[in-house]
Amino acid sequence: MADNFDAIVIGGGPGGYNAAIRLGQLGLTSACIDKRGSFGGTCLNIGCIPSKALLHASERFQEAKEDFAKLGIKTKVELDLPAMMAQKTKVVGELTKGVEFLLKKAKSEAIVGEARITAAPSNASLGKVEVKGADGNIRNLIAKYIIIATGSDVAPLPGVTIDEKQIVSSTGALALTSVPRKLLVVGAGVIGLELGSVWKRLGAEVTVVEFLDRVTPGIDGEVGKAFQRILTKQGFTFQLSTKVTGVEKKGCGGLKVTVEPAAGGDKSVIDCDVMLVAIGRIAYTANLGLLEVGVAMDKRGRIVTDEHYKTNVAGIYAVGDCREGPMLAHKAEDEAVACAELIAGKASHVNYDVIPSVVYTFPEVATVGKSEEELKAAGVQYKVGKFPFTANARAKTIMATDGLVKILADAKTDKILGCAIIGPEAGNLIAEVVLAMEFGASSEDIARTCHSHPTLTEAVRQAAMGVEGWTMQM
Ligand code: FAD
Ligand code: NAI
What is the pTM of this model? Predict the structure, then answer.
């Protein structure tokens, strides 16, 4: 294959593969390089997809154990963990192969190897990237444009060594070979609560230690409180405002974890079998040659770009988790498409005001736009409409009445400014509000739109009606 491309994309995750595919659709040749050996990045291999497969399977397991009898279905339920893991692996395999197929279709050469930029593109010469294959062989590629989409990695907990067996990151927590009796989760963020839910449903006792005084910081405070209450009802134990100060492996195979109040104070010990470290992720830019070619990074190690994804070095771009913004697959994907279109000379942009965020627990938590706290801090006058799932007919029929929909709209113009949903299918329900916000809709637009009955979407409509105070409660 030729070693001269229009663009070289480093990273085969949602940022990388979507950039390469869009470039191909626009008639530009590219190479998409990933060192992992399987395309799809964190998302497909060790992130979104395997976690959602296990969340689905474990939710069905718990449902069969606890809810089927209430529906008049008698079952004898038994866990087959190897089969559950095999289904997850199968899905991952199919999807990663799918990415390779899509790259091929877009005439992008998928190359497995570790890439390093050895020269930036300039008016006089093309940019150069060296790729080291697993066999140690080096291949040199040249291109007018280089897109960096190297993603992110697990944020380390100082003094704690992750072995991915007993002290695990999300990667190890997605591949445990038995259900831990006691699981200690460090960090009440998205990963901690999703993967904590998986192992809780499969039988583990789960304790979550969180540095701050609340779960899922950043999510609307009222919804965050409801979330913690619901998870506590499900059996989670939370130790908020607490930090882990040490961990010791015990002779019998367990772990002794030392914690103390975040503000300092008396230490105490938590015994567990497995500890999951989920305290955030950091941009991954190691061994890329960025310092050598002079690409600027911020204090958090993220690549700095302008709104067109251009770094300070001409011809080098960055998208996805390795630059600022929420670390989400759909954000990476949208940036990738916009970046490819801009390179191809088209107008394109991403609307960062309407990027939804979903926690795939049960119930799900979905948000978009501003939270009530953010509006207050910004001094924006707003109105609130809320609707509880206890008053939604469909939620009752499916025995999923925990949660509510909350819509925030501008007090004067009624333009929707934000939405937070905790409840069944929240991740799907939020799409209606995202689209409405993309079109600059008012809460009245949703309130006066006919919604099918009986559906969960009626709860969204009722919350929108609530903004003007005409919710119809049952
Ligand atoms: P990545 O997907 O991280 O891809 C970067 C790729 O670059 C990697 O494959 C890496 O091997 C490769 N690479 C790095 N350096 C080099 C190099 N020098 N040479 C060659 N290749 C290199 N987001 C959601 O939106 N929804 C979810 O449900 C969700 N669930 C998640 C669950 C977990 C457990 C985790 C960890 C993350 C989850 N995320 C989720 C976040 C999501 O995975 C990321 O936001 C997304 O993958 C970012 O895409 P990216 O392309 O920027 O980076
Ligand atoms: P997170 O940022 O969501 O949560 C980390 C939590 O750890 C925070 O609550 C933080 O206060 C806490 N914390 C930080 N340091 C701590 C310490 N020393 N001790 C105790 N608690 C501490 O990060 P998480 O869960 O690791 O996820 C990383 C990223 O992956 C997220 O930013 C998210 O965007 C992405 N992701 C998205 C998913 C989704 O969209 N459903 C699912 C999983 C991950």
Answer: 0.98
